[in-house]
## 1
Amino acid sequence: MARIKGVDIPNNKRIEIALTYIYGVGRSLSNKILKEAKIDIDKKAGDLSNDELVAIRDVLNKYQTEGDLRREVNMNIKTKMEINSYEGTRHKKGLPVRGQRTNRNARTRKGKGKVVANKKK
């Protein structure tokens, strides 16, 4: 099992898909990285040689991924919360941030439904 940027890459998947296990790498960036490193997209991750892994690591270092990207995203959220922007207040309250409805959905953000006493009348 190859390890890139602190993430274990699954051996049985195509390298195009396996690279998406790294935070901040999607399909398009994965394809761009492989094209730059001159590696076949259809090759399995377990079949890569050490030279090819080194080439992928070198290209990946040009992009912000994993810990650095997570840190930046969290800092952006904290900044919004500090300046009391609309998005920041929604983050504080644990409500949907991007304009979704909340009167009948949003259970992912709001958590389990709260029981209201004396509702049955």
Note: The radius of gyration is 21 Å.
## 2
Amino acid sequence: MRIGVVGSMHFTETMLEMRDRLIDLGHDAYLTGLAAPFIGKSDKEKEKIKIEQKTHQDAIRDFWRLMQGGDAILVVNPDRHGIVNYIGGNTFLEMGFAHVLDQKIFLLNPIPDIPFYRTEIEAFQPIILNGDLDRLIV
């Protein structure tokens, strides 16, 4: 299965780990090509990189192009900003892209309790893995 790994770029190291684990499980897993600058950076540095990439490197459309022909996305959603199983705005957008492209949406952890878009996430009908990549349904 061709699977895009998405999440807040603050989780880049975890996303790379998930990509590698998916590859080990026999999947064609990918991550944005813009991930490398985030490795080993502080949250403050990562925020500056995100802004630069979105405004000057067309990061959102870049990932949209990568998603074409994919089968699924894996949303890496650990806790952040005091929100359990955090999903940020850009990740929500990528989930919407996957939904429109008829791709499966896997959440590494359960749906966060974010009142502004919890119902929309539920409408995507994601498959919740509860941290277990072996639960991926091909």
Note: The first helix runs from residue 12 to 24.
## 3
Amino acid sequence: MRYAIVIEKAENNFSGYVPDLPGCVATGATVEETESILREAIEFHLAGLREDGTPIPQPSSRVDYVEVAV
């Protein structure tokens, strides 16, 4: 599966989340570290859903950029 992730700059680190998996979050010192930890968090989150017998949400979020004049 391919899930969209969002990584944002925090005050002293980066934080990330998965829009299609509420509660699946991670933090790291760099974007790369946050993405790596978030990948593990997604796998752990999905394993927990399977263990609980909860359906796994299909990826449905779309990520894109828009350009605006400044």
Note: The chain has one domain: 1-70.
## 4
Amino acid sequence: MQYLYSWTINRPQNLDDGLAAFFEGQAEERDYYAFAEELIFGALENLDTIDEKIRELARNWDFERIAKIDLAILRLAVFELLFRKDIPPVVTINEAIDLSKDYSTAESRRFVNGILDKLRGELDRPSRSASEG
């Protein structure tokens, strides 16, 4: 989420260089963050689809006015819900709400939960378990 937020604010010329610089400042070696890097690449590779889904679900919100931190949280969570069937939807939603509690506001927490709950309702898979494929 932190990288997606920084990427939203200041996009690097080259994603690989941007990620390398980001991981240099982290407490652990880069390999430790392999799963996070997988999610970052997936979210950015599918950004148009993800942003379109956020626009669709946030009908009464101007996309450009969504707080950048909330947008980073939503992008990560929407990627997981749409493309990572190995992660149970309730896990994704709970983690997104926890991130919004830690990094955003009470209103944002409700906003993020509302968007993701709408998307969860559209999914054709169990909410509490991972799916194959």
Note: The chain has a mean pLDDT of 93.
